[in-house]
Amino acid sequence: NSTLVIAEHNNQKLIPSTLNTITAASSLGEVTCLVAGTQCAQVAAEVAKVKGVKKVILADNEAYKGFLPEALTPLLLAAQKQFKFSHIVAPATAFGKNVAPRLAAKLDVSPISDIIGIKDKETFVRTIYAGNAIQTLKSKDDVKVITVRGTAFEAAEVEGGAGAVEDAPACDAKNDLSQFVGQELSKSDRPELTSAGTVISGGRGMKNGENFKLLYDLADKMGAAVGASRAAVDAGFVPNDMQVGQTGKIVAPDLYVAVGISGAIQHLAGMKDSKVIVAINKDPEAPIFQVADYGIVQDLFKAVPEMTDLVSKK
Amino acid sequence: MSGFRILVGCKRVIDYAVKVRVKPDKTGVVTEGVKHSMNPFDEIAVEEAVRMKEKKLASEIIAVSCGPQQCQETLRTALAMGVDRAIHVITEPKEYESMQPIHVSKILSKIATEEKADLVIVGKQAIDDDCNQTGQMTASLLDWPQATFASKIEKSNGDLSVMREIDGGLETIKVKVPAVLTSDLRLNEPRYATLPNIMKAKKKPLVTKKPSDYGVDITPRQEIVSVEDPPVRQAGQKVESVEELVTKLKEAGLV
C-alpha cells in the first residue's frame, strides 16, 4: 500500500491540517506528498522533513496559481497513473473538498468525505447529519479518495523525516476553464482557528460586531483564536471565516470558551470535541450548558472583562 | 439574448429542524414518519437560478431530484419557487439508501448534456450525508469548470465571476460557461413559495425517469457497516463566579 497526500499550502508554508492528514495517511501505507503550486520549492523541503513522509513530488507551474481543481486534477491523474497509490488523501478543508471529488470522478471512485477515524485500509468512520450520527463505511473501490478532518488526528511531527523530493510526472498543465482572480484573507495576529490551542467564540449574545473587542482582548491575553456562531455571522457581527459549526470550521482545541452562544446543534457539531468547554451565558437554560465542563450563568458584558483581568493576573 | 439554461439539483432530506434518531439496529437513521424538506443548500441553488431568470440572465430552469416517489413533493416546491419544469429520477427506497453522490453526479451530467444546460447549480452539500461532492463530481464528468461554495455570482463578459467562501476568507475566480456552481449559505435568502405559485406549480411539467434511462449503474460503491449515536458529552458543573472559573482553569493548566 502507498498513500498520496495532497499537501495544502500557500506556496510559502504548509497549512497545519496537512500535518494531521499525514498522520491519518501514515496508518494506510507509505506516504508520498504532492506539493503543487507556484514557486513552492520551499514547501516541498518543509514537507520532506515531516516525520513519516517518504517521498515528495513537486509540481511547480504558473498553471497551479490559486490551486484550481481544473489545473490540479490532470496532475493528480498523471501521478496516480505512474505510482498507482492505494489511497489518495487530502485535508477536509475548502481546498481538499474542492479537489478530491473532482479527482475521484475521473478515477470513477466514490470519495469518502471528512473522515474522523480509520478502522482498516478500507473501513472509515465519519459523521453524518451534522454530527448527530456516526457512520462506519467500507469502500469497495480499488482506489480510496479521502478527505480527513484535521481535528480527529494528531499533527505529524515537523522534524524527523527524510523524504526524497522529485519532480512530478509530466502532464498538460494548461487550464483555460477557470482563472484565479484574487483573495481577501482576514488578517489576524491571533492563531489560526482550526489549529489553536484555545478558542473563544461569540454568539448572538454579543449584540454587535464592536463588542467582539471584549473577546479579542481576552484572546490576546490567552493566546487564543476567536470564532463565532452562525447566528453571529448571519447577523453580520463578524466575517464568515470565523464561523465555528457544521457549515463553518470544525475545531477541537484544549479549551473552548463559548460566550453568549446558546448552543444550536449545528454549532455543537463544530466544537464538541474540544477537550474542555466553558460556557458563559445569562440564560441558565441554554443548551450549551449541557456540553460545558464549566458553565457560568452571568451577563457576558460583566464576566468577560472580569475574566480578562483575572487571566492576566499571574 | 437567449440566456442560460440552468439545471438545479434538489435533494429531499430530513428537515433541518428534526432531531434525527439512529435506528436501534444501527443500519441508519429513522426516516419513516419524519418531516422531509428540500436540502437547504439546494433551496439556495434554486433561488439563485430563479433570480438569474428574473434578471433575464436565464431562459429556462430545470430541477432534478433523484430518489423515491416523495421526491416529487420536493420538485413541486422548486416549481413553486419559479423553476419551469422538473425531472424526477425515481429509485426504489431500498436502492436510494445506498445511492451516493457519484451516482447522482453521473445522472446530473447526463441530463445536463441532454438538455444542453449552460449551468448546473447544486447546494454545496446535503445536510444528511454531509458529503460535499456532487457539484465537483458533476463538473469533473462534464469537463466543465467548478465554482464551489459560491457566495456571489456575477456575469462578466461571457464568463462568470464567482466569489467563494474559503477557510481564510473569500476568493474570487472566473469560470467559463458552461460551468457547475455550488451554493454556500450566504449566496442568497431563498423565498417562500406563495399559495398561488404552489397552485400554479401543480400544472408545471414533471417527468419521471429511471437511472437506467441515462445508462447509470447505481450499484453501491460503499457498504454501510454501522450508524451509531455519537458519544454523549456529560455536562459538567456550574461555577458561581468568574474568579472560581479562572482558578479552575489555572489548576488545569489551561490559562
Folded structure, characterized:
The complex is a heterodimer of chains A (314) and B (255). In chain A, strand 1, helix 1 and strand 2 form a beta-alpha-beta unit. In chain A, the strands form two sheets. A nine-stranded mixed β-sheet of chain A has the order 7-6-5-8-4-1-2-3-9, with helices on both faces. In chain A, strands 12-11-13-14-15 form a five-stranded parallel β-sheet. Chain A has helices at residues 17-26, 41-48, 69-83, 94-107, 212-222, 230-234, 265-271, 300-312, and strands at 2-6, 30-37, 53-60, 87-91, 112-120, 123-128, 133-139, 144-148, 164-167, 178-185, 198-202, 225-228, 255-259, 276-281, 294-297. Chain A is an alpha/beta fold. Chain A folds into two domains: 2-167, 3-Layer(aba) Sandwich (Rossmann fold), CATH 3.40.50.620; 193-312, Rossmann fold (3-Layer(aba) Sandwich), CATH 3.40.50. Chain A is built from eight helices and 15 strands. Chain B has a single domain (4-251), classed as Rossmann fold, CATH 3.40.50. Chain B is 28% helix and 30% strand. Chain B has seven helices and 13 strands. Chain B has helices at 40-54, 71-81, 93-97, 101-114, 134-142, 195-201, 242-251, and strands spanning 4-9, 12-14, 36-38, 58-67, 85-90, 119-123, 146-156, 159-166, 169-175, 179-183, 206-209, 222-228, 237-238. In chain B, strand 8 and strand 9 (169-175) form a beta hairpin. The chains are: A alpha/beta (314), B alpha/beta (255). Chains A and B meet through helix 3, helix 4, strand 5, strand 6 and strand 7 of A and helix 4, helix 5, strand 7, strand 8 and strand 9 of B. Strand 15 (294-297) of chain A pairs parallel with strand 13 of chain B.
